[in-house]
User: Fold these one by one.
Assistant:
Number 1:
Amino acid sequence: MKLIQKLFHNPILSKELQWRMRVKKTPWLIALYLVIVAGIVFTVLSLQDLNRVATFDSGANIWVYTGLSFLNLLMLAFIVPGITAGLISGERERQTLDVLLTTNLSSSQIIYSKWIASLSFVLMLLLLSSPLYVIVYLYGGISPAHIWQSILHLMVTVLFLGSLGIFYSTWIKRTGIATVLTYASVAFIGIGLPLIYILMWQFPYFQVLNGQHWIFNALLSLHPASSLAYVISGDFGLFSNGNHSWHFYWIYIGFYTVLSAILMFWSTYLLSPIRFRRFGFSKKVK
Amino acid sequence: MCIVIQTKGLFKAYGKMEAVQNLDLTIEEGTVFGFIGPNGAGKSTTMQILATLLKPTSGQAWVAGFDVVKEAAEVRKRIGYMPDFFGVYDNLTALEYLEFYGACYGLSQETCTQVGLELLELVNLLDKRDEQVDLLSRGMKQRLGLARALVHDPDLLILDEPASGLDPRARIEFRAILKELGQMGKTILISSHILPELGDLCDAIGVMEQGKLIAQGSVADITAQIQPGRVVKITVLDRMEEALKWLEMQEEVEQVQSDKETLTVRLDGDEIVQAQLLSKLVGAGFTISQFAEAQVNIEDVFMNVIRSHVEVSENEVDSETIS
Ligand SMILES: Nc1ncnc2c1ncn2[C@@H]1O[C@H](COP(=O)(O)OP(=O)(O)OP(=O)(O)O)[C@@H](O)[C@H]1O
Ligand SMILES: [Mg+2]
């Protein structure tokens, strides 16, 4: 409890949140986000309504739900890097970082409070879009397990994208380059991994294996869409032909949680001006 | 007296560029220490090391007895650092700006506000408390930066060229604030290019050149180091020519120059020699209306220090090539 209190009394966190709320474009960004998500969901739902006048098909609703989750993922992939890739390099460019580093705040406190501040904004966006989930839920065909699994999946993705942005922001001095690199990494995960997957199917060696190679499993596990689809629509035959022994969803959750932790730790290391040498041996002066 | 800053063999290299070389510095509590040197001398680098922002390549430095590398957190609590260039956050008012940094030092909300207002008053910015910091003028930002360095009431202030970009009036005001802080017992390490300003503000100065501290001590000490002996200006009421000749014959007088009314005498010796010369002059029957040590311009001192240093190193090179 004390830890939470300490976390929220953090000056950077409160300043950052205050600042975001004062920026005039914030309400517009929120509105735009909701309009896009809601617009697409309602369009799909009404189209479905037209199609299934005769038979009530709650099975198809799962696809609407999956689509909504994918849509959220896609939006976050665009929003989170934009918010986080400038967090540290922005301070550096504004020449406020040195002063911040001489205060009592440790570099890990600076990193974590910035991370939490930007992610709480994103989580707020997600929270605001939750009524849409409820609407889709009411159409039936979705279990509560689906809901919490996709929420957990989104959270892990957001945390990972945030730490990726912060990492580049700490490592690279310029916000522009850090932003480009963050988007490039996200594009690699989102588009690059499926491309590799498709390319591999072209090789006779892998065709013979019929997707039974561990690389196929790894590629499917690490992609946000396939790992999410695995739990939501796993019963609907998407992956039933492959006989996959891996649980894509949990591997995804585990892998990106660990990766986020590593990136955050690494960022802290990069930020501290006098880098600790807890690992390895310090050179002995003769 | 407590030693606030101490460095031993401090060395910092950026690749092959040796920015600070074997710096040994000792600064006692309550001293206002001026760091002077031309561009690229290594002043900012030294200050960044002391402010725990840069790791020295070798050597050690302590602030208030704490090692700047191993005990950085302790050091940070005790210093207020103002970089040569710093930015401010937008969307914050002057008071909020100070409150934010107060909070970064772990002060409570009420203390932050109270301290913020006190400091705004100290730097004469109380009327700007609700203005956006990014809209303040350069000089105001500079003063706000000084206030910010003071939020946690540090014992040591490290100010890197705080007066740069200020107009003459603002400079005088700024200096007055620093004097006030000095009188409050704070130790101040200040760097500058504007030498006459440091002269009457600082208790001691250090002259840096190409990463080396080439002279250190009080302004008077350094003057003595450069030109041993002293310069005295003498005004005699009559018999000017005679006095000139008489002075030239004295053993302790190295050089005499005369212009219309005053004789400028360079002495080889200290205060006692100077006093003896006066009594001898009076004894010889000259009517003295003025007899005073000449004020040495700190700018001259600085140029002399650097010039003599360059000459010395050139000599070294010469003797090396000969041998
Ligand atoms: N980050 C850096 N990377 C490489 N070289 C650097 C870096 N910072 C400083 N230097 C070099 O170190 C030397 C000392 O620089 P420093 O900023 O300490 O000088 P200074 O005395 O503060 O000069 P000035 O009066 O212009 O502020 C310079 O030659 C500079 O080029
Ligand atoms: Mg400098």
Number 2:
Amino acid sequence: MNGQPTHSLMKWRYIKQGVFFGVVRFAALIITLALLGIIVFLLAHGWRAITWDFLTLSPMDSMTKGGIMPAIVGTFYLTVGAIIVALPLGVVSAIYLTEYAKQGLFIRIIRVGVNCLAGVPSVVFGLFGLGFFVVFLKFGSSILAGALTLGFLILPTIIGAAEEALKAVPQTFREASLALGVSKWRTISRIVLPSALPGILTGAILGVGRAAGETAPIMFTAAAFFTSVLPRSVFDEVMALPYHIYVLATAGTHIEQTRPLQYGTALVLIALVLGVDLVAIVLRSMVRRKKRW
Amino acid sequence: MIIQTKNVDFFYGAFRALTDVTLDFKKNRVTALIGPSGCGKSTLLRLLNRMNDLIDGTRVEGEILFEGQNIYAPNADPVEIRQRIGMVFQKPNPFPKSIFNNITYAPKLAGIRDRGEIEALVEESLKRAVLWDEVKDILTKSAMTLSGGQQQRLCIARALAMKPDVILMDEPTSALDPISTAKIEELIDTLKKHYTIIIVTHNMQQAARISEYTGFFYMGKLIEFNVTEKIFTNPDAKQTEDYITGRFG
Ligand SMILES: Nc1ncnc2c1ncn2[C@@H]1O[C@H](COP(=O)(O)OP(=O)(O)OP(=O)(O)O)[C@@H](O)[C@H]1O
Ligand SMILES: [Mg+2]
């Protein structure tokens, strides 16, 4: 058994490689097709519902007519609120975990905790939010309670992304700055964080998408079945797109009649999430282009 | 005498990287540290400005005095020490900022605000690092667009801008071409009027050309320390002789 593989062995290798690539390509294709399928399906069923009135009016006639403007506004507030809660907390946690804490048992326990948090079903977050924010802290069913609940839900995503981003910053940057007699905290805030920004943005994107789409966590903490007025403070209830879909599709008395509205709402939700993703991706590539190393 | 190490032992965890190193670095002189790979040159250099603090699980024993003060005393501030003892690394490591901002980054954080003062500092530092003529028209361009040799001189200028007393250099030319290397060697020669320079190098000719004193290390021990000429012409230790004549290393 030495040296040169035989001709048939090489051929076998080519076949194996070909099969492997085929499988991988097929998997990628299926994912893309699934996404496309969902979008096409929603477009086909929902595009008729999308009108100017649909986007700018409140629901009318026990939600069989009118629009979804309060739900759009509500989802916007909840999502922005969740990011305001989770982004600073997540980034600070990630800084602690990667830059300050000595690697050891304690840190490993925290990491396991963060990962477990990521695996907790979203309805459990909803119940936690109900028990803690709504009842115990007496926030009531409100934007505040919903945003906090969603914030905790997306925290692990953001911590994970921020940690990865911080770890990807070359150690030589830290050394260069520290060796100039710049303190550790300033090295982190002036050199490390700016370099990690694109990756942190990615985490925020994922967080926004998740927060905007979740139903269970806001069901008991923030979402109103129906309101025609817009919220005036963070203690008001709001309608939200995912919950609105759920309500129209299951709890209304005119389920069949409102099908187009359901698809229309889903379409708006998807468009919003993809829109946010797009903005963030563009932003990220702009930041990246400015910082090459 | 600007820096003295006294019976220094150093450990990475349980691994002993330096054993009983006692050594004096003279002010405004160039001292070269030589020895085979893994003998502890970089470890010693990084001890002098407390860069080894960054590595978890390390331990120093003995004393390192900078102008008579033990830099490992409990009340010694590593930030202040690093402002006075600058460092240039093996691989050029400019920040992903403009040339101008690379130089002003640390001085600004140290409190220099005046625009005129800052501009003067940039010019002076770049001139001292013999880079001014090449970059004076492109100060706002990213430092990443410079050549490797220019980047290394920028890193030297960046260190000079903090007005340190000592500059530590860890194989500063090993990633550079011969022309850039020659430029940096010339530069070191002019810098020694104002600064104490301690340089690690694998290049025997370089050590002989640029340094006044040379320390030879082997397996974490300082085998021999003397004026460079003596080390390279008539070393006391057999190991030193073997190393400089290329018999091992
Ligand atoms: N971070 C570290 N953790 C553990 N051991 C280390 C670490 N850095 C260096 N060492 C060990 O300490 C010893 C001295 O390393 P050092 O980098 O000081 O050598 P050196 O003389 O600079 O070598 P070279 O010429 O290759 O740069 C080596 O045996 C090395 O493996
Ligand atoms: Mg080294």
